[in-house]
Amino acid sequence: MNAPVSLVVPGQDIRPLRRFVTGLAAIIDSGAGQAAILEHGGALLGRLVSQGGWLPEEFARPHPERYQQYLLHCDSAERFSVVSFVWGPGQATPIHDHRVWGLVGVLRGAENVQNFRRRPDGTFVQQGETGQLREGEVEAIDPQVGDIHRVANAFADRISISIHVYGANIGAVERATYRDSGEERPFISGYANEVLPNLWNGVIRA
Ligand code: FE
Q: Which residues pair with 126 in a beta bridge?
């Protein structure tokens, strides 16, 4: 018989992620609207990404060719999902949208974010300067304001990792990527992993 397998390295403390998940669920359970979810959930995410050591190595692994999205948790009613984005050196997304609210917090390294808006002819124009999100910082994504952007690792010589939270099971959301010409391509991101970290091993104390 095989020995029991745990994705949580002995001594690794997954509890910060568990606290984040239960805290965000409590905010949503309270009936908070999107603005309050982004505000209070953003504060929780800021706390999560200010702590190191909780993300198991399996969900921090880069791929040589493309950025990775590892599902860390999905709410049982798919009201939210938590994903680790692992950026290899220089890796970037295409221009894409989300169609649900989101929160992005940088755990390690930094990422560059360029927002876009559509011209009347359907092509895209950059909106504002490229912003940089650094370790410990959190940014909200609000489809009511505009949720089309391109994100890249800010570093050409090191890995960056950000923790993303979305108002749905984001890997299954039908959304779109875009060419610079504005051409829209249907997109369902999926996830890189089949197995999730165990948040529920042992007793949690506030
Ligand atoms: Fe995005």
A: 116
pTM listed for this prediction: 0.91
CATH fold, domain 10-190, is: Jelly Rolls (2.60.120)
Question: Which strand ranges, in their side-by-side order, compose the sheet holding 102-108?
Answer: 68-74, 81-87, 160-166, 102-108, 138-141
| Ligand 1 centroid to residue 3 C-alpha, Å | 39
149 CA to centre of ligand 1 in angstroms: 6
pLDDT in tens, the chain (206 residues): 565 555 455 557 899 999 999 999 999 999 999 999 999 999 999 999 999 999 999 999 999 999 999 999 999 999 999 999 999 999 999 999 999 999 999 999 999 999 998 888 888 889 999 999 999 999 999 999 889 999 999 999 999 999 999 999 999 999 999 988 889 999 999 999 999 999 998 665 54
- CA 10 – ligand 1 centroid, Å: 33
In the block, tokens 């949503």 appear at 28
Centre of ligand 1 to C-alpha 109, Å, is 17
- Residue 81 identity: S
Rounded to the nearest whole angstrom, what is the distance from the C-alpha of residue 31 to the centroid of ligand 1? 25
